[in-house]
Design brief:
5 helices, Arc Repressor Mutant, subunit A, 67% helix, three-stranded antiparallel beta sheet
């Protein structure tokens, strides 16, 4: 799980994930056009994302097509976020009630 957090810690890698999510099957050359840094730097970021299993690839001839794998992010959600949803929703409902009471 540490590799997932390491991968998500960098804003360029989060941008890569957004692009791959929005354009499933995008190839590395097309992906690198979104950045001011080199194709080599893009590939280094992709390597970290692939090691974290956040991005999967398939070869189509010479091209490498990229796809997002949401399972690691879902695992983070299940382990750390979902447990707090009820608490936060309940707190927001109470706050809304207090604000509405004060305004009436």
């Amino acid at each position: 799980m540490d590799d997932v957090f390491k991968a998500l810690a960098d804003s360029n890698r989060r941008k890569i994930l957004d692009i791959v999510r929005d354009q499933p099957g995008i190839n590395v050359n097309d992906l690198s056009q979104f950045f001011d840094f080199s194709r080599f730097a893009t590939m280094k970021h992709l390597k970290i994302l692939q090691e974290a299993k956040l991005v999967l690839s398939s070869k189509d001839g010479k091209e490498k097509n990229l796809f997002i794998n949401a399972v690691p992010i879902q695992t983070i959600y299940e382990r750390w976020i979902r447990n707090y949803e009820g608490h936060w929703a309940s707190s927001l409902i109470k706050l809304k009630g207090r604000i509405e009471e004060d305004n009436s």
